[in-house]
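As the work plan foresaw, our protein records have gained a structure token line. A representative record is set out beneath this paragraph:
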Amino acid sequence: MAPVISFRRATKEFPGAGGSSFRAVDEVDLDIDAGEITGVVGYSGAGKSTLVRMINALELPTSGSVTVDGRVTGELGERGLRNLRAQVGMVFQQFNLFASRTVAGNVAYPLRIAGWPRDRRRARVAELLEFVGITEKARQYPNQLSGGQKQRVGIARALATSPNILLADEATSALDPETTGEVLRLLRRINRELGTTIVVITHEMEVVSSICDRVAVMERGRVIEEGPVYEVFADPQQAATRRFVHSVLSDRPSPETVQRLREHFPGRLVTVWVRDDPGARAALAEVLSASEVRSTIVYGGIRELAEKPFGTVTFELSGDDRAIDAMVAELTARTHVEEIAS
């Protein structure tokens, strides 16, 4: 099956000062399959938003190509671009609702632009408001709504023309944790019940772990790592991916924390990766308990991702240096180990 979205050496440059140019997206190759939820993550300035705006052709590639639902965006005329954008809904961080329109009026707006007759618009708006759970808010205005309710309106509006693809640009970053969970469950429901392909820009691990099937990690305009969520985050191959994972997990001690730990734990400090491998975890426990080296847990964080455990645990190892070296070698044979203080 051909991917529904395909980037091939896609590059986007913007003009800079003094005749120079800035490359926001740099020769990206990426496929997104129909019916999946894909997260695009990375630090600020990595090129995430530009990449996603290339999907609905709000930005066209400077070179390379972007193919969406079988159509090469750079080859479409104005009518073709309008037709493409009608099949790609977008949900924004700051909601972008019309303050002067009611909830129903906001949801109806893209239908009116698309030329739907009034009766059909009313029926579709009612259907969408029921689907997102805010039927009773139809006559209210955005300033009367909570953040979560505003985002539900934004999602309903994005679904108005029954798009095949939904783009969510930091759609939950302005919401509290409880409301974030509600919106994520709604997005997952849209994916499962409507079969909508969803692309999510986020810096929040909760978003990725809750709903994403695959993840693409960006740095300096490039996709540096891509694949199933657990495989990428549990065994990151790139330094930027490792930094992102550990920054959002807070499972590894910072240099300042290491200094504080050293005041109470003068032995050698090693960080051990924990992954979804019961045999390996049992072997780790056996190594730690059987050795004459004394091991003390001093830091760590384990959580679930795709219903599988991952994270790190930092130990203080005390005893004979040769015995510690042998223990670290045994641990390294079973998982990734990093010595952070000796």
Residues 272 and 332 are 8 Å apart (CA to CA).
